[in-house]
Hints:
This protein is mainly beta. The chain is built from no helices and eight strands. 0% of the residues lie in helices and 61% in strands. A hairpin with a 2-residue loop joins strand 4 and strand 5 (60-72). The model has no long low-confidence stretch (mean pLDDT 87).
Amino acid sequence: MSIEAGKLRERITIQERNLVDNGRGGRKRPDGGPEWIDTAKGIRAEIIPLRGDEALSNSVVRSTQLYRVTIRARPDVTASSSLDWDGTKLNIKALAKSLDGREIVMTCESGKPA
Length: 114
């Protein structure tokens, strides 16, 4: 069962960490480069807020929001990806393909650094 096109009302950008080989077997962010780079823009999505919370981290109160994001299946989305939704950074916490393989359903969180 695939998602109805009318439910995909939001547009997101899929992002990956900007990493290059460091010459010693590891990876690092390039000097002066952005932390995240856009890999796909204008992807249609259904975004449903699930719950919000406040947490104390390093003596700073942060509000966090949990979302369920559904998009059509694509090979370039992984758990290490991030989403940008109209300026809101969504960190992917979990993702799974639907039973028919036509959709990806992700649990994402905003308000926390990746």
